[in-house]
Sequence to fold (674 residues):
Amino acid sequence: MSITMHDVAALAGVSLKTVSNVVNDYPHIKPETRQRVVDAIETLGYRPNLTARGLRSGRTGVISLIIPDLRNAYFAELADSVMRAADAKGLSVIIEQSGADRARELEVLRGSRMQMVDGVLYSALALGEEDAHLLDSVTTPMVLLGERIFHGPTDHVTMLNTEGAKAATEHLIGIGRRRIIALGAHEGEVIGSAGLRLEGYRQALDEAGIPFDTRLVCEVGDWFRFEGAEGMRRILASGVAFDGVVAFNDSMALGAMRVMQEAGLRIPQDVAVIGFDDIDETRYTLPTLSTINPGREEIAEVAIRYLQERINNPGSTPPPREHFTRFELVQRESTTV
Amino acid sequence: MSITMHDVAALAGVSLKTVSNVVNDYPHIKPETRQRVVDAIETLGYRPNLTARGLRSGRTGVISLIIPDLRNAYFAELADSVMRAADAKGLSVIIEQSGADRARELEVLRGSRMQMVDGVLYSALALGEEDAHLLDSVTTPMVLLGERIFHGPTDHVTMLNTEGAKAATEHLIGIGRRRIIALGAHEGEVIGSAGLRLEGYRQALDEAGIPFDTRLVCEVGDWFRFEGAEGMRRILASGVAFDGVVAFNDSMALGAMRVMQEAGLRIPQDVAVIGFDDIDETRYTLPTLSTINPGREEIAEVAIRYLQERINNPGSTPPPREHFTRFELVQRESTTV
DNA sequence: GTGAAAGCGCTAACAT
DNA sequence: ATGTTAGCGCTTTCAC
Fold:
């Protein structure tokens, strides 16, 4: 049996309500009363029961973060940023992995765990624009992360994908590259990281007057290292000439780099490479990898702020907001000639 | 206002208890009654309120995982394994980062979040054997992970560190290496990953009749890539001859590999390298990295099982158990000559 | 400024 | 096999 407010109230000789007021930092309490309560809490080692508080107040102080997979460095780092931002606001974070699986991404939304969190940060990978309406029925406050769904019924925080990819491509063009591979395309995709980033790649080529060549566009399935490696193997096998690679994430860039190095290509002399995400690892590879930093900390901070605003104002439902973070091009050895 | 059991009971024309029984899969319910309740749940879209259930039953179905830092690939992968094992048992996981900071590791133990979880998986990095008594006062069921505290008051799951390091060293000796660097030592440490692994390294040398040379022992602070790189720089600067490296984790091995490659050393021809942890990345570096797989999935599975046993039998307090997982040596290019 | 009472939604006894 | 009753520990009216 644990210590309850009752015990504290009894020891301090006050009522339940007064203890509650002290615990919740209510302003109007006589200093000496407050002190007596604080002492009683101290001597008894009282800790509020958060479950009871949650039941009564309707708030648990817990949010959930739904991401595809923690083993993916980008999401591990995103989770880290989210947990820091949440911690600063006194929130705990339950992480749920969806495995980028459509069925599971939907299941998690309906799952009963949703009943015990105040809000959800939702980073979908398999759902798309056509699923936006499925979010209408979600009553828990939610902030969307990522590029799969725009103009949904909820707040949305993401980076400027097209602009980032354009900047990456311009950077390669700026160091004299003309035959640039786009690694990580998804056929027919318009919305979504792949679609948006390919668009940025095209814009950069257009503005530089470089013709778009479909042989330089490498389509892959998932964005793991393996796929980056496989994609590069296909490029090499095709015999197409190239002198630069814009990979749509760092993992693929690293997989491709390994394949190129095995094939005897020198980076950046023969092929300059730039990735996306600025995962920690890019600082330590050989060569180190230039990349686009998507502003993970800003994403986490803004997402938490939006979520908390929704949580704290359950009545009002202002229209969904959209926040685009600033990105930053980080130049490292893979594009320094 | 959300739908409660009351609403379901009213619609199905049964009592609260019956609804509760159906929801909790109680065995003895007339099939037709059950069906009526199920239908009512369906039409109303009822979801049990987990907070209320938690308050009443004393169990929330949430555990917390306390780890140093998700940005560390080993812990991200451990968290992934833990979440999968927990999910299979219907448990949710709150992750808390301690930053390998002693004060924070202790704070997290006393934190009020502990009041809302059924149990804790605790992976300390800064606490040590001398802090074991601090765990006595923790009433929440707990399973220790890692090597900092043995013979504490709680269950403990870890790998066979000494044996793993011994096997790694023997592997290098087996391919003809005699001057082997031990990368990642902590001066004076006996317990803890560094101490135990250094011991395994010594045992392997002893058994092979190779003299222990302190100039080959490289001490570092944290076990990040940066420290591995710095340690290797010091080794190279010292001018000591060597033909093998046993790194006490993969991150350091990769940092060291990069420095060696920059210095023109070929791996594995000039220096064979083996790490520890089998993080995903080791499969994709150039060369791929041989390593000791610590059996993360087994660690997660056993830890969750132990924890659940403690949670489900709050009365009985059998003595603390200790489980050592099997490790596996994974040979890759960095030790294949 | 503080107290008394009500009840958040659920499950565990104890009936029937 | 199902219904009734009584709280879990807290916050929130509403008094005083």
